[in-house]
Design brief:
The chain is of the alpha+beta class. The chain is built from three helices and 16 strands. Helices cover about 10% and strands about 25% of the residues. The two termini are about 10 Å apart.
Length: about 240
């Protein structure tokens, strides 16, 4: 009973999907605006004054970022604790493919750190889906409580988004600002992360900025049957 946009296939053969609100009364999924978010405004992390605060988790993966806490709570209520007509939790429809919180360093000068996602999407305009093992977040490696996360700036780039280039027609445009889980830089005193702009382009801001929305991402397991055509007016529907 939620709408999702397909982001990409996963490394395990599943389908990565991003929250896009609730269907209309006639079962259509054409949402833009605040309806595409579980929260209209949130910080990425209330803690911001150290480089580690770009992390989806930090302090050696012992503390959850603010946005992770909100996403986990939403997941518990809307997926883990909800059941299909057979009494099976909707969580069984999902796969534990990794989410990438890419903290690779492209350049460091004293206290300033530039991260890999910045180099790829600001300097080179060359996104990548590769992810170092230490930056992969899964339930299996105990970095995640549940198999849910956020989109990366690279995934949004493959969908058609570009830094500082307005694009209101590409696939993941929603007319709203929303967070990714991709670090941008640490300027020596404040952690900064990528977000998708309301005009469809990419930009960055401090992790404690309060004006961007939250869109959970999950991985639908492979071989799950669907009906429908995959359009706004006739979306795919997961078959129980």
């Amino acid at each position: 009973n939620f709408c999702w946009k397909i982001v990409r296939t996963t490394e395990t053969g599943g389908v990565r999907i991003i929250y896009n609100g609730s269907p209309t009364i006639d079962n259509k999924c054409n949402n833009i605006g605040t309806a595409t978010q579980i929260e209209e405004t949130s910080t990425y992390n209330d803690s911001y004054d150290q480089a580690q605060h770009v992390g989806y988790k930090y302090d050696n993966d012992t503390k959850d970022s603010t946005i992770k806490q909100k996403i986990d709570s939403w997941y518990e209520e809307n997926i883990k604790n909800k059941k299909d007509s057979k009494g099976v939790s909707y969580s069984t429809y999902l796969d534990d493919s990794f989410f990438c919180n890419d903290k690779s360093i492209s350049r460091q000068v004293e206290d300033e750190i530039l991260y890999g996602p910045r180099h790829r999407n600001y300097d080179n305009r060359a996104p990548s889906l590769e992810c170092a093992e230490e930056d992969k977040y899964t339930v299996a490696n105990k970095k995640l409580k549940y198999p849910v996360g956020l989109i990366t700036i690279d995934e949004a780039a493959y969908a058609g988004g570009v830094y500082n280039t307005v694009n209101t027609t590409y696939y993941l445009y929603t007319n709203r600002w929303y967070w990714t889980m991709s670090p941008y830089h640490f300027n020596g005193s404040e952690a900064v992360i990528w977000f998708v702009n309301s005009s469809g382009d990419f930009n960055r801001n401090f992790v404690n900025y309060t004006k961007y929305g939250v869109r959970p991402v999950v991985n639908l397991a492979s071989k799950k049957l669907v009906s429908g055509a995959g359009t706004n007016n006739n979306p795919y529907v997961v078959v129980e």
